[in-house]
């Protein structure tokens, strides 16, 4: 009903038949059980793994050439499981994580500094969970490095760390307020941003959960990194230069993803093949 207000034309249809997604260009996967207050994303592992397997098999059969964006939590493991189950090319399967996490980081900084959110550039890497890595060193406010504002006393290190932590807890904050569900507006907007980059061949750098084949010294796992998305899906993974502390935090986040993947593989041994 909002289409007449916002001035866009679109047709919606609902279905429970995978045949209706035949030859889709883009598929955004949100299927899964949402978090409840007190739950972490990881608590959803066993339940959502079964759901992702079913979805992957349906997409493999009816839309094997689609660009697939996975939003289901725990994100990094679910997107990796989806790729395994579907056997779709890894460059055509990505996870929505970093865009959402970075947008939360930007929002909290804008509230703290009282500047428009559009004036902030920010990056969050790593797993989409409690160990995600906000990167203040790569953050700019109106073109000025964030850390310079810290040096000038416009933002204390203590406040910055609290913003970093609030970014990590951003999803849980929404779950607490909703009580019976998890975030959906911001994840939806993030997914659409990724779909637009693919459909319009924008070659835009976006932080997403992508398959790593040696980048950042990591092999055979999905994790949040800056990537270029265009008409071929993930066309390039950008390797930014991390300092020692950033590398340590990033690898700690990767280790958390690996441990959760091991847990998923124990639930379904076929994933380890």
What attributes does this structure have?
single chain, about 270 residues, L-2-Hydroxyisocaproate Dehydrogenase, Chain A, domain 2, 11 strands
Structure write-up:
This is Malate dehydrogenase. GO terms for molecular function: L-lactate dehydrogenase (NAD+) activity. The structure is a single chain. It contains 9 helices and 11 strands. It has helices at residues 3-6, 45-62, 75-86, 98-113, 146-151, 157-168, 170-178, 185-199, 244-267, and strands spanning 26-29, 67-70, 93-95, 120-121, 124-125, 133-134, 140-141, 144-145, 204-213, 219-230, 233-237. The chain has a 3-stranded parallel sheet with strand order 1-2-3. The radius of gyration is 19 Å and the shape is globular.
């Amino acid at each position: 009903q909002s289409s007449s207000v916002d001035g866009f034309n679109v047709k919606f249809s609902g279905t429970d038949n995978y045949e209706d997604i035949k030859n889709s260009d883009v598929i955004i996967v949100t299927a899964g059980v949402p978090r409840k207050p007190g739950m972490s994303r990881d608590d959803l592992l066993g339940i959502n793994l079964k759901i992702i397997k079913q979805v992957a098999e349906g997409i493999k059969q009816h839309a094997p050439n689609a660009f697939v964006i996975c939003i289901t939590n725990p994100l990094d493991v679910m997107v990796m499981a989806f790729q395994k189950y579907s056997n779709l090319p890894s460059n055509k399967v990505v996870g929505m994580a970093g865009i959402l996490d970075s947008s939360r980081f930007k929002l909290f900084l804008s509230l703290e500094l009282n500047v428009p959110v559009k004036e902030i550039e920010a990056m969050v890497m790593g797993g989409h969970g409690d160990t995600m890595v906000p990167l203040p060193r790569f953050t700019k406010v109106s073109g000025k490095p964030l850390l310079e504002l810290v040096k000038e006393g416009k933002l204390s290190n203590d406040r910055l760390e609290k913003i970093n932590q609030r970014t990590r807890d951003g999803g849980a904050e929404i779950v607490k307020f909703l009580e019976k569900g998890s975030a959906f507006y911001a994840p939806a907007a993030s997914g659409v941003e990724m779909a637009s980059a693919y459909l319009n061949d924008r070659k835009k750098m976006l932080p997403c959960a992508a398959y790593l084949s040696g980048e950042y010294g990591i092999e055979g796992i999905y994790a949040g990194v800056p990537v270029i998305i265009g008409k071929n899906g993930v066309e390039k993974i950008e390797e930014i230069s991390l300092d020692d502390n950033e590398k340590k935090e990033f690898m700690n986040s990767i280790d958390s993803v690996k441990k959760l993947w091991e847990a998923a593989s124990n639930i379904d041994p076929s994933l380890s093949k």
